[in-house]
Amino acid sequence: MNIDLSRRSFIKLAGAGVVASSLGSLGFGEAEAQELAHIKPFRLTTLTETRNTCPYCSVACGIIMYSEGDARNGQAELIHIEGDVDHPTNRGTLCPKGAALKDFVRSESRLTEPKIRRPGSDAFEPISWDEALDRIARALKDDRDENLVQFNEDGVPVNRLTTTGVLAASATTNETAWATFKVIKAMGIAGFDNQARV
């Protein structure tokens, strides 16, 4: 049998053969699909899924955290964090800091309770949340009583406290940011940064 095959047709046929064999070796054949059917996927059914917001910046990307254990009593171990594909801000993507959140949460140097260094001591000791909040409230009240400027030189009421500064959370709702802004300004604190540009 004699086939009339030009040089150009031969090169096209050889190229098509190379492409077909390459696609088969890259997994587009039936053998690859059958092999993948036997691999068990990573099962998240035993883990607790929690949707949250990344705490790093004001972009407030959505994250999904997978944990194992009793999350209600603070005994859960974080297994995996990924971007939330249903979140309108990041649509499943995370920056490098957001992608490393698991390391941030599981870090041995992370503070998990309030601590205080008493005068003359060289070490921090843990205290309760009630004691910490009472000490903060007392320090704010003492500072405000001592340093509040109620009137300027012209006698105009200014209600200004310049010795205390507050850095508020960035990943909050508009309503929370607005309420925080109003409380801090009502105290007269001038040094304040918040995402609410009221």
TrEMBL record:
GO molecular function, one term: oxidoreductase activity
Cofactor: [4Fe-4S] cluster; Mo-bis(molybdopterin guanine dinucleotide)
Annotated 4Fe-4S Mo/W bis-MGD-type domain residues: 47-109
Gene3D superfamilies with a match to the protein in the record: 3.40.50.740, ADC-like domains
Subcellular location(s) per record: Cell envelope
One GO process term, biological-process aspect: anaerobic respiration
GO cellular component term of the entry, any: cell envelope
SMART domains recorded: Molybdop_Fe4S4 (SM00926)
Keywords associated with the record: 4Fe-4S, Iron, Iron-sulfur, Metal-binding, Molybdenum, Oxidoreductase
Pfam families the UniProt entry points to: Molybdop_Fe4S4, Molybdopterin
Similarity comment: family membership: Belongs to the prokaryotic molybdopterin-containing oxidoreductase family.
Name of the protein this chain belongs to: Formate dehydrogenase major subunit
Organism of origin: Paracoccus isoporae
Source species taxonomy: Bacteria, Pseudomonadati, Pseudomonadota, Alphaproteobacteria, Rhodobacterales
